[in-house]
């Protein structure tokens, strides 16, 4: 059985403007044709051969999808659907349209204690939810902390990008050095 839908994503979604990109992924706004609802489509480039260093290995893409499928929390981006074609796996994600928390704060003249507390609380609730399920995000950084809608009095935080996330197995030592270089303090173990 195919893990991901093999139909053309363009038959079901109108693909719109680019929202952002990562090393091997481009995220575009899209609209579901049947419902008119807006989502974000993350096109992840598949690695085409074992020898290649470009693109993402299939097991890594499956891990990201698998973890997202286990998550349902108000402060974490939700996965709606997954499509696949020869070159990409396309994650249809909840649209997080308020931009990065960092940019929001940089543009603000001042931040009240109440606002700061609310942001920190939401971030910690998201992380606590993950850790209670033994999921480590491994790439928490300002770019991955976004706002659902910045035009509300207390914007809702959404943690995004589960490309490096791992489930930590009890009794199994997890050793790896990864993350975004500026934010890696030391190798996790
Ligand atoms: P990622 O590789 O998942 O970090 O995505 C790359 C960039 O795309 C992010 O830094 C965001 O700017 C944007 N992005 C990712 N997911 C979403 C989303 N669900 N809604 C809106 N923009 C997103």
From TrEMBL:
The keyword Repeat does not apply. SUPFAM superfamilies: Protein kinase-like (PK-like). It comes from the Eukaryota. The keyword Kinase applies. Pfam families: Pkinase. The lineage of its organism: Eukaryota, Metazoa, Chordata, Craniata, Vertebrata. Residues 13-189 form the Protein kinase domain. This is Death-associated protein kinase 2a. GO terms for cellular component: cytoplasm; nucleus. ATP binds at residue 46. Keywords: ATP-binding, Kinase, Nucleotide-binding, Serine/threonine-protein kinase, Transferase. One of its GO terms (molecular function) is ATP binding. Belongs to the protein kinase superfamily. One of its GO terms (biological process) is intracellular signal transduction.
